[in-house]
Amino acid sequence: MKKLPFLLTCILLLSATVLIGCKDNKTDEGETPATTTEAEDNVGSNKGQAFIEGDSENPNALRLAMDSKDHTTLVAAVQAAGVENALVNVGPLTVFAPTNAAFEKLPEGTVEDLLKPENKSKLAYILKNHVAPSNYPIDMLEKNIEKGRSLYMASGENVAVSKEGEDIIVGGAKIVGTVKVSNGWVHIVEDVILPKE
């Protein structure tokens, strides 16, 4: 019977050591590292991590869009679809971010209809068609063009990549700007990349 208190003491010491170890598990920037590494683990979840401010000077894809006056429609769509966490995940990921003007090119009433709660899953599918769960800076996109490869998107669809003169076209949308973000790349596009279905 004397072994029971000894065993209990060992368990308590082990538990305290684990808790202290977890508390001290910080990155160089003082933030606790994320435990999720795949973009699709948080697609559609709304756990609040999307709006946590980071100390990094290099924002994540969602924070970049939120800070841009040219992407207010995209941010509203991301929030309506509940896919914020897909854009803040550790990555790497590549986001093709349509501007407000790109959404305005859609037939009248399309955006308003997609933002309705009953169309949440359809909107999420369209937005996932703008996210490649991989690292695609411009030079990698050009290599894909040379090899005739398409891009696999989080929607499950493959999107064609081509070049017209100096312009890179992804799913029919021309890239007009590129920004490196903390979790990958954001390519600003002048059209919405609509899924085939």
What does this molecule look like?
The chain has 197 residues and is an alpha+beta fold. It has a domain at 61-189: FAS1 domain, CATH 2.30.180. Helices cover 34% and strands 18% of the residues. It contains seven helices and eight strands; from the N terminus they run αααβαααβαββββββ. It has helices spanning 3-23, 61-66, 72-81, 100-104, 110-114, 120-128, 138-147, and strands spanning 93-98, 131-132, 151-152, 158-159, 161-164, 167-170, 173-181, 184-189. The strands form two sheets. The chain has a six-stranded mixed beta sheet with strand order 2-1-8-7-6-5. Strand 3 (151-152) and strand 4 form a beta hairpin. Helix 3 crosses helix 6. The longest helix is centred in the first third of the chain and has 21 residues, at 3-23. The model is unreliable at 1-55 (pLDDT under 50).
How many helices in DSSP terms? 7
Strand order of the largest sheet: 2-1-8-7-6-5
Radius of gyration: 21 Å
- CATH level-two architecture of the domain at 61-189: Roll
Q: Say which CATH homologous superfamily of the domain at 61-189 is assigned.
A: FAS1 domain
CATH C-level class of the domain at 61-189 is: Mainly Beta
Low-pLDDT segments: 1-55
Specify the biggest β-sheet.
6 strands, mixed
Cα separation of the termini? 69 Å
Query: What is the structural class?
Result: alpha+beta
Following the backbone from N to C, one meets helices and strands in this order, namely HHHEHHHEHEEEEEE
Do you know the CATH topology of the domain at 61-189?
FAS1 domain
What amount of the residues lies in strands? 15-25%
Globular, elongated, flat, extended or rod-shaped: what is the shape?
Answer: globular
Mean pLDDT: 77
User: What helical percentage do the residues reach?
Assistant: 25-40%
